[in-house]
């Protein structure tokens, strides 16, 4: 039957000859072939490398799984409990009025609304098989909306006749509802074909929020099944499928995908394939009695040591026999034994209490009954890892490491190559190995040599995990594993002193860089609009800021930067530098820019406290107190102050043994010179000699020559103080009072 061209994925039209193989070229490195035994299938049209993209396909129809919990028919998101919002027309659950009115729902809504008695609409929360009618209806509506795609649907493999013969109740119920209640298919045969074509050919995908959906992909449906696939399949949130080679493929090699899970035992895989697809798998794994050496389904022989039973089929009956002794067991007995063991780890206290030693003992008992790689052991190990995941004690980490290592051995055989299962397992193994190495190193039970060696082993596993998980589509729900593996890989690289490989996305660097700076990494240039707080954190760890932030908010930022002795990003606004420069001077740094001199009085006081030159000459009208502080630390005043107010200033200066800046007004120097003499400095001009009698008397007591004549109006008391400390008088004395002054000096000389 011909397959017509689709707009999204062109396919050549060809006729298939049932007597010989025919070939159909496709616009990917694959081609379609057909044989009487295998039907139509896809092969590699050339040599394909592992990881190479071989096919991309969007679904022709996408919808809920046959049995599903409540979800919105518009956006395919889950409907949360307890309410059930509904479409006002068809009464099916919808998350919002917007989805109910969406164009994608309008066509099916008109048909679903024909069920006026609401026979199929879900009534309560929980899983329900009523959603089986939705995807069937959507495919039937393609007959009118997209005739080309409808013809592709008719070309899909279907076992409708066989299902009708077997009396499949679910199949019959769905077809009856869409044909008789909804009237969506005038031809019941078409409804039977479509419903079974969906069951036979659909693929499971993850929609928004991780909801499990199913889609119809006509091209992917042509890939044959194998219990050891050669390709890996991923999907994004829109349901678009990406098919990549898991291993290297030679030209002409079939593209094998698995229709079922890979961790089921032999009898479960065979039963599911026969019930749904009506064939018995004859792949390499299924044809090998020991399943590629794993004995994945084999029980132990009770008579032979280290020997396992193998399946034998005779007239449709499967028995398990020992290859060395006559021991046999029926498959029904083996299945019952497996069910009993699987039920134990669901309810046993060993898993409820999460004791590592007890979990290990339970796994040991499983190995005494089955092969160490038997699927019962695999499922038990998976359950144990899920329960022990939050426990990061050293014994638990060691147990988890051993379990991941053994699971990786199994997955390497069942699903080799660049598959997601191997990628996730390598990530978990590498992360656990690194965590265990850190814990043992912290407890001082591991030398540095072995610590580095263990981290290098974890690094190798994480590198392979990143390489595999990087193949996930960007909008896939599974891409989270890729980012987790990146993070773990960079952590191990830092522990080994290596540079990280995966800087974060710059679109969200504000919070990301804060974390990155905590581990002393150079971040990417983030958006400068939010750098104020970010650079504060960066400066705390003495790193160069990402980009110059907005200078309008640098006052507080530069304060933090100066605290760690780092050059500010840009000169801030000088109007607010008064407090900023105060902080800068505290750590002996040059201010950013000369601040406004109108407010430097207090600023320069602080600067002089740390022996720094002021920024600019301050206003001399307010330097009285400023120079007082400066002289306190033995510094030269900024500039000569106004002499009209130097009386008190010079008093302080003389206290510190400094030279007076300008001659004070002699009319008020009496008290000033008194203070100057207290610090043994040369007094200002001589006082009036009219009152020097007592002053010279004191001076002669300390063997000094009387001062020259000076204004004596107010210097009497001032020179008295100066004479007390052995200093010359400030002014020349009046000769009218020399008599008493020389008498005092003569007495001092004789004594």
The residue ranges in which pLDDT falls below 50 over 5 or more consecutive positions are 1-22, 506-578, 586-600, 618-624, 643-647, 656-673, 675-693, 702-716, 721-751
Proportion of beta-strand residues: 5-15%
> What is the topology, as strand order, of the major beta sheet?
1-2-3
**What is the helix content?**
40-55%
What is the number of strand segments? 14
Calculate the mean pLDDT score and round it: 74
Through-space gap between termini? 143 Å
**Structural class by helix and strand composition:** mainly alpha
Q: What about the largest sheet? A: 3 strands, antiparallel
Radius of gyration: 46 Å
Approximate shape: globular
Topology diagram in text:
Elements: E1 22-25, E2 30-35, E3 39-44, E4 53-57, E5 61-64, H1 97-100, H2 103-112, H3 132-140, H4 142-145, H5 147-155, H6 160-166, H7 169-181, H8 188-201, E6 203-206, E7 212-216, E8 224-225, E9 231-235, E10 241-245, E11 256-257, H9 266-276, H10 284-287, E12 310-314, E13 317-321, E14 328-330, H11 331-347, H12 349-352, H13 356-369, H14 375-388, H15 394-414, H16 420-442, H17 448-469, H18 480-495, H19 509-518, H20 531-540, H21 554-563, H22 577-586, H23 600-609, H24 623-632, H25 646-655, H26 669-678, H27 693-701, H28 716-724, H29 738-750
Parallel strand pairs: 8-11
Antiparallel strand pairs: 1-2, 2-3, 4-10, 5-7, 6-7, 9-10, 12-13, 13-14
Helix pairs in contact: 3-7, 3-8, 7-8, 11-14, 13-14, 14-15, 15-16, 16-17, 16-18, 17-18, 19-20, 20-21, 21-22, 22-23, 23-24, 24-25, 25-26, 26-28, 27-28, 27-29
